[in-house]
Amino acid sequence: MQTLIAGNWKMNGTKSSLEEIDQIVRGLDTATTETVEALICPPVIWLTDCVARCAGSSLKIGAQDCHEAEKGAHTGDISASMLHEAGASHVIIGHSERRQDHFETDPLIARKAKAAFTAGLIPIICIGESLKDRQAGKANTVVLSQLAASLPQMAPDAPFIIAYEPIWAIGTGLTPTLFEIQDMHAGIRAALSAQYGQRGAHIPLLYGGSMKPDNAADILGLEDINGGLIGGASLKARDFLAIYAEAA
Ligand code: 13P
Questions:
Q1: With CB atoms 3.0 to 4.6 Å apart as the test, which of 71, 109, 161, 236 could cross-link to 150 if both were Cys?
Q2: Which three-class secondary structure state does DSSP give residue 225?
Q3: What domain count does the chain have?
Q4: 173 Cβ inside 6 Å of ligand 1
Q5: Does the CB atom of residue 150 touch ligand 1 within 6 A?
């Protein structure tokens, strides 16, 4: 399985940040390995610019959300097929910030994920516990129940990715211990194997939450970790490429 190093720019950057994409493209020209894939999910307004800047590069471009419907009267929303047509390869679904800011629920996330792969995109489905859940010893139960309820009804071979992002580790500089990350990912892997059999072993699992160049090697070296979903450190080409290099 390839390792995926994915950047989520969230609602950050200005048009001049597109120079970071150029720098990543240049960096990957010399650093690309077949075992590691690189993806940046910019604000959707820059999606087509980013796709154009990546022509001929191994860098892929994704989106941060999509609507569950294929089209229709949904002012302000964007469908998965529009993202696909614009050149996106992946779409992040159910990020905790969308769960919080837009009250997204597990069943909605499952429907969005289905819309994504119906349109030809690979959904990156996010799950993760709050600090309160972790302190109460409920992290594994909460995450596994989110996983079960967020998985789409789909064709057996439809591709998708799971990102475990503990909410309290996002943008805080805090991370779970390596043991806690591995333990959670092993639980997620076991649940996927129980549901999908052999295929469960091949569904990529990303870790996200304060991943940086200086902790990436340790986290990416764990069993059952197939990459990272990186927020703050993906905004600077230098840091993103440094994390990529740790994975290579
Ligand atoms: P940070 O890397 O900034 O903690 O963000 C993680 C994240 O939310 C990626 O989706």
A1: 109
A2: coil
A3: 1
A4: no
A5: no
Split at pLDDT 50, 70, 90, the class of 33 is confident
> Is 129 an annotated catalytic residue?
no
Q: What are the tokens at 41?
A: 């999910």
- Look up residue 160 and give its two tokens: 């998708």
- Atom 5, ligand 1: residue with shortest CA distance: 231
Pocket of ligand 1 contains residue 208 by CB under 6 Å: yes
The CATH number of residue 134's host domain is 3.20.20.70
Q: Work out which ligand 1 atom sits closest to the CA atom of 96.
A: 8
- Domain of 186, in residue numbers: 3-247
Beta-strand pair 227-230/90-93: unpaired
Q: Residue range 132-140: average pLDDT? A: 97
95 catalytically annotated: yes
Residue of 212, 218, 146, 230 whose CA lies nearest to 180: 218
Which ligand 1 atom sits nearest the alpha carbon of residue 229? 9
The pLDDT value given to residue 194: 94
Residue 25 scores a pLDDT above 90: yes
Helix (H) or strand (E) holding 133: helix 131-135
Residue count of the chain, please give it.
Answer: 248
Catalytic residue among 95, 104, 129, 246: 95
- pLDDT single digits (tens) 43-54: 999 999 999 999
